[in-house]
Amino acid sequence: MRPMPENFVAFSVVCGFFIGLSFSIVSIDEAFDIVVFTLLITFLFYILIHLSIMFFIDINKIGGRIFNKTSYENTSNDIINDLSIRERKMEHLLQKLEDEREELKKNDSKERKRNAKKQRPAA
Fold this sequence. Notes:
The protein is mainly alpha-helical. Helices cover 85% and strands 0% of the residues. The chain has four helices and no strands. The mean pLDDT is 84.
């Protein structure tokens, strides 16, 4: 597992809280002062860890990769082109289905007329 700055911050804040709480309980008698000094020491640990991360950890090594805009745009354009081709194919298929439906309606009406003519003379 690679060291991440977020892990250092979380660990430092938790340590700062418990160290601040310990020192506050040992040296102060009033409850409000204990809370204030605990929060103050926790905040100091928070600032200290951010300063140490800023000076001692190389974010570019931890970050892994740099965002490649041209590759992303090329991939996006390929996907968009593929989707437009599929959309045209679907529109073509839907148009064929609509034409077949119209043809079936015409044939159905012709078939009904033929059946009506066949049934009429028998009466």
